[in-house]
Amino acid sequence: MQGKSGCGAIEVVYGDITKEHVDAIVNAANPELAGGGGVDGAIHKAAGPQLLEECKRLGGCLTGDAKTTGAYNLPCSWVIHAVGPVWRGGLANEDELLACAYRRALEEACRIGAESVAFPAISTGAYGFPAERAARIAVSTIRLFLEGRPEMRVRLVAFSKTSAHVLKQALEERQAEEGSWK
Ligand code: AR6
């Protein structure tokens, strides 16, 4: 979906983020940047072992923060490793930490000059964050960030039909709230 003039675009796509031909893909990483399962495992597998070598030199990453590496065998140019929060019931600042992870990933994208960025649904797998709540936070944080950045394009990559539906719904709700955003 296109943003109103002066605002970057957000769209929801269904698929595997490792196949995305964008400037940067975002990884849902852990604070050790040690690789793991889920999208992290898929990204490391597709990128090759050099990605883990570079990650090891970064000294970890705090929850809510993001760090950038090369993409090696992936079709994108960079991987932005963002660490979302583990869901602990909602009273441990999880919402703000998730928003922070999205914001920091987008700041990294700007810093390296990446105009097209693909995100997975950070924290909604192994970290257990409720999908609808996470989708609303993702959409509103990205939307705010894209204000005044018309050159940017963000793709929310859903790995299941259910996830795609949840993300599309959050995007439509946000659009409806803003009225004129088409
Ligand atoms: N492309 C797009 N999305 C994917 C892919 C893929 N190839 N594979 C999985 N997803 P998760 P988290 C979706 O668990 O909750 C790891 O072990 C998945 O369906 O990957 O932030 C890390 O090392 C879900 O919707 O990340 C950490 O230890 C979303 O990506 C921990 O898990 C996120 O699920 C991070 O947990």
By CATH reckoning, the class would read Alpha Beta
DSSP summary: helix tally: 5
Report the CATH topology name.
Leucine Aminopeptidase, subunit E, domain 1
Distance between the termini: 7 Å
Biggest sheet features? 6 strands, mixed
Helical content (DSSP H or I, runs of 4+): 25-40%
**Residues in β-strands, percent:** 15-25%
CATH superfamily: Leucine Aminopeptidase, subunit E, domain 1
Average per-residue pLDDT, rounded, comes to 96
How many E strands? 6
Describe the protein's architecture and organization.
With 182 residues, the protein is an alpha/beta fold. The chain has a single domain, classed as Leucine Aminopeptidase, subunit E, domain 1. Helices cover 39% and strands 17% of the residues. The protein is built from five helices and six strands, in the order ββααββαβαβα. Strands 1-6-5-2-4-3 form a six-stranded mixed beta sheet, with helices on both faces. α4 links the parallel β5 and β6. α3 runs parallel beside α4 and α4 packs across α5. It is globular, with a radius of gyration of 15 Å. It starts with 8 loop residues before the first strand and ends with a helix. The model has no long low-confidence stretch (mean pLDDT 96). The structure holds ligand AR6. The site of ligand AR6 has 24 residues, from α1.
